[in-house]
């Protein structure tokens, strides 16, 4: 029996009602494979690789597209490996690309970015290079998780709300995995766990499932600071950053370092000569502290109060001239700038933020995207504001999952 067949044996309990034998054409944004049934209708199938031939059972079908699940991998891709994680086998939706050989993941992700730029931004010739990847396992230092009814740390099953408890998490840093394994949060709705790969500090905070109910916490080692204002410190590119529980931080220290290097490469000489730099969606100040020369003035724009507090603390220690503006980027009214770095959340910039950033008239804008379709949509919005995409670099900050980070250089026309 082929490796892929073995990995999926028993995945479908009932006798399939509608079975098709399909060839997977490509993987698309969101991580699923795309195939076509004999009528030409698109079928999305999770857990597959381009070129594979698979028997698929339809789980839902509409006129334009259907969704299927694998019954059997008939011809596995040479890039297929057996998923090693026990939680994945029980339905955890955290790492949906464990069936892809680690060495092949980034190239596939870059293909997804190219396809998004071709389809959504109508840029068929867009240049997308592959940058680096973080370690395949043990890289995550932050996790926002659900809990099961016993209070155990859990991730959700895809397309349902059902929590799947984690005994261990293979992508978690060992100091984080220890918390995943031992801690219980009975009565919590969501839990944020974070460790510092630099100092070993750990923090945990949670929200209640029902207002007024107590959360019963057990199994949390004594060193773990609790509450939304508990902080950890990371040292990225030689700069110390304070990160409190509520503030965003990259998936880990390696991810922060790789992203900083990639943004610096993509910005290139624009960083060196800049007098005024905008760090939009600046978080705790990752880019402002590590890569903007101290000769420049930085305006960091950020919506979260906790992240702004951390950013003020971090920028005071690292820079002489800066301003932290607590505002949504959409409502912020900019002055002229020489360089904009923008790193929005998953939904991307959207039209108002694209217009606000374009109003800086900066000659160079570096956009960091964590959703290929939102990134491609933003490329179109920025084009309408006079910014042309020059090139993009795909990097892998989330190995074992379909998630991809893209860093793009946009230049102002004229
Ligand atoms: C992907 S994170 C990037 C943070 C930072 N650049 C880093 O790498 O650590 C996005 C940040 O944007 C903030 N944010 C989300 N929507 C925003 C908005 N509309 N306006 C301003 N900030 C926003 C979030 O609080 C978060 O800190």
CATH topology of the largest domain: Rossmann fold
Strand order of the largest sheet: 7-23-24-22-21-18-19-20
**CATH architecture assignment name of the largest domain:** 3-Layer(aba) Sandwich
Number of strands: 24
CATH class of the largest domain: Alpha Beta
Q: What form results from the Cα inertia axes?
A: globular
Whole-number mean pLDDT = 94
Q: Give the biggest beta sheet.
A: 8 strands, mixed
Helix percentage range: 10-25%
Instruction: Count up the domains.
Output: 3
Rg: 22 Å
Structure write-up:
By secondary structure, the chain is α/β, with parallel strands linked by helices. It folds into three domains: about 80 residues, OB fold (Dihydrolipoamide Acetyltransferase, E2P); about 190 residues, 3-Layer(aba) Sandwich (Rossmann fold), CATH 3.40.50.150; about 90 residues, no CATH class. It has ten helices and 24 strands. It has an eight-stranded mixed sheet with strand order 7-23-24-22-21-18-19-20, with helices on both faces. The longest helix has 18 residues. S-adenosylmethionine binds next to helix 7 and strand 19.
What are the main properties of this structure?
single chain; 414 residues; alpha/beta; OB fold (Dihydrolipoamide Acetyltransferase, E2P); Rossmann fold; eight-stranded mixed beta sheet; six-stranded mixed beta sheet; 10 helices; 24% helix; globular; disordered N terminus; binds S-adenosylmethionine
């Amino acid at each position: 029996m082929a490796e892929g067949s073995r990995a999926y044996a028993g995945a479908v309990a009932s006798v399939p009602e509608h079975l098709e034998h399909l060839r997977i054409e490509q993987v698309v944004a969101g991580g699923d494979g795309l195939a076509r049934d004999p009528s030409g209708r698109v079928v999305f199938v999770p857990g597959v690789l381009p070129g594979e031939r698979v028997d698929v059972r339809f789980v839902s079908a509409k006129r334009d597209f259907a969704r299927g699940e694998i019954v059997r991998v008939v011809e596995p891709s040479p890039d297929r490996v057996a998923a090693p994680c026990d939680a994945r086998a029980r339905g955890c939706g955290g790492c949906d690309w464990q069936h892809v050989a680690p060495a092949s993941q980034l190239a596939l992700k870059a293909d997804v970015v190219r396809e998004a730029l071709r389809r959504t931004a109508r840029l068929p010739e867009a240049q997308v290079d592959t940058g680096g990847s973080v370690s395949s396992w043990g890289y995550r230092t932050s996790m926002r998780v659900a809990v099961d009814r016993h209070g155990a740390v859990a991730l959700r099953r895809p397309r349902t709300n059902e929590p799947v408890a984690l005994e261990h998490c293979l992508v978690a840093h060992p100091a984080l995995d220890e918390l995943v394994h031992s801690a219980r949060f009975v009565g919590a709705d969501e839990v944020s766990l974070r460790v510092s790969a630099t100092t070993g500090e750990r923090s945990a905070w949670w929200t209640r499932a029902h207002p007024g109910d107590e959360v019963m916490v057990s199994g949390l080692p004594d060193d773990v600071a609790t509450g939304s204002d508990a902080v950890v410190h990371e040292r990225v590119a030689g700069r110390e950053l304070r990160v409190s529980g509520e503030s965003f931080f990259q998936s880990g220290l390696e991810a922060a370092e790789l992203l900083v290097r990639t943004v610096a490469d993509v910005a290139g000489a624009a960083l060196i000569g800049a007098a005024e730099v905008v760090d939009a969606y600046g978080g705790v100040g990752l880019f402002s502290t590590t890569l903007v020369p101290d000769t420049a003035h930085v305006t960091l724009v950020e919506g979260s109060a906790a992240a702004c507090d951390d950013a003020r603390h971090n920028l005071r220690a690292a820079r002489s001239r800066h301003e932290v503006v607590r505002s949504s980027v959409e409502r912020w009214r900019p002055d002229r700038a020489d360089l904009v770095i923008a790193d929005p959340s998953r939904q991307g910039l959207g039209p108002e933020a694209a217009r606000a950033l374009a109003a800086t008239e900066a000659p160079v804008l570096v956009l960091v995207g964590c959703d290929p379709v939102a990134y491609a949509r933003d490329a179109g919005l920025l084009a309408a504001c006079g910014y042309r995409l020059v090139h993009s670099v795909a990097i892998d900050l989330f190995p074992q999952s379909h998630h991809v980070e893209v860093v793009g250089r946009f230049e102002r026309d004229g």
